[in-house]
Design goal:
The protein is of the alpha+beta class and 193 residues long. The chain contains five helices and eight strands, in the order E-H-E-H-E-E-H-E-E-E-E-H-H. It binds inosinic acid.
Length: 193
């Protein structure tokens, strides 16, 4: 089965491929399209934004699409950066900068609880469904690791005693928010063949 993933983020595409290709799914993405399609993500929740992305491409090309909307919620910062994770401190700002600003904002905070959230929307002619995955962690005290992307270098996952940027992609995928959402979606596919 071919699945069109509405993203041009190569890191996300790699994670989708690593988890879905061994199960026989073939992954296509916005990077396979010749044209550049603008999608306005003006939803207030991960669910709304994931549906907006998947619906835009589904309606345009009449194909079944999946889209993920994801982000980091930090409890001591009122769940920021949340749905604005990609645009936090400016879309084109480096993650080294964003991560350093977060560490500075967290300097005196005792509660360092945070979570990655990923909502995948599956949109076809006949249905709209969402699958939510989360992973709970702690904001690290310093940046560590160069695997993964985005906020991985400051996401400390206690069972690994390490940040998600300092473990292998298969270790990250085995517990990650995106991995958990994908596993829920695959279970749904299996039960609805
Ligand atoms: P969007 O889903 O494309 O709107 O962007 C989500 C943003 O959340 C990414 O650009 C990252 O900043 C952050 N994010 C989502 N998933 C991850 C992850 O697995 N690791 C690190 N950062 C992530």
């Amino acid at each position: 089965m071919e699945l069109f993933v509405v993203t041009s983020n190569q890191h996300k595409i790699d994670e989708f491929k690593e988890l879905l290709e061994p199960l026989g799914y073939k992954i296509k993405s916005l990077l396979d399209l010749k044209e550049n399609i603008e999608i306005i993500e003006d939803g207030k929740t991960f669910e709304e934004n994931a549906i907006i992305k998947a619906k835009t491409i589904c309606e345009r090309f009449n194909i079944t699409c999946i889209a993920d909307d994801s982000g980091l919620e930090i409890d001591a910062l009122n769940k920021e950066p949340g749905v604005l994770s990609a645009r936090y401190l400016g879309h084109d700002t480096s993650y080294e900068y964003k991560n350093n600003v977060i560490l500075e904002r967290m300097k005196d905070k005792k509660d360092r609880t945070c979570r990655f959230v990923c909502v995948i929307a599956l949109v076809s002619k006949n249905e709209i469904k969402t699958f939510r995955g989360e992973v709970e962690g702690k904001v690290a005290y310093k940046i560590k690791g160069s695997n993964g992307f985005g906020y991985d270098p400051i996401f400390f996952y206690e069972p690994f005693n390490d940040t998600l940027a300092n473990v292998s992609s298969s270790m990250k995928n085995s517990i990650s928010h995106r991995g958990n959402a994908i596993r829920k979606m695959v279970e749904y596919f299996e039960n609805n063949k």
